[in-house]
Amino acid sequence: MTETTLCFPRRTRESTGESIEEVLLIEKRRGLGDGLYNGPGGKLEAGETPRECATRETREEVDLEVDPADLEKAGELTFLLDGERHSVCHVFRTRSFSGEPTTTAEARPTWTPVDDVPYDQMWDDDHLWLPGVLEGNTVVGDFHFEGGKPLDEAEFVEYDLKWNVSFDE
Ligand SMILES: Nc1ncnc2c1[nH]c(=O)n2[C@H]1C[C@H](O)[C@@H](COP(=O)(O)OP(=O)(O)OP(=O)(O)O)O1
User: Fold this and answer.
1) Does the Cβ of 125 fall within 6 Å of ligand 1?
2) Which residue has a Cα nearest atom 6 of ligand 1?
3) Which pTM was predicted?
4) pLDDT (tens digit per residue) in 76-90
5) What ligand 1 atom has the least distance to the C-alpha of 89?
6) What are phi and psi for residue 124, nearest 5 degrees?
7) What class is the 2-163 domain?
């Protein structure tokens, strides 16, 4: 069973007297979820904590610096494939970062208004939990996929969510 991370940098952009709430999404350019929008993230390496992984993946994928200590844990998502636990994903958000997001071989970043998140171009489960995470809630979820590998070609069949949980880390 694999542990993975997702990191959602947030900012408020002022434009002609209006405050626009934005989230940094990536269009993934290779690997699991290729072609889909998501937050930066990926698999934990040996000896790494989820926060360290989210920081490294955000740097590697879009060249943005976030500090592990500034990441707020927002979710823990278990993805199951044909009844077996496939991966557990630690979801973080932060308003603290430095640098400008840059396109890399792995990902194309876009600051996206939270009201315009392209859920129809994301994993089928994202519209169930990401809006709540972007509103500041915490969530634990199980998401069941069936009928084939890899996960991004399997069918999303059912889910269970618990909101406003507290995380120890
Ligand atoms: N169902 C679903 N919804 C939303 N996000 C995800 C899923 N399944 C997932 O795996 N994910 C996320 C979790 C991770 O951030 C990525 C997949 O990461 P990973 O397996 O590491 O992908 P690769 O790019 O192939 O590998 P590395 O970057 O670690 O080399 O998607």
Assistant:
1) yes
2) 123
3) 0.96
4) 999 999 999 999 999
5) 13
6) -65, -25
7) alpha beta
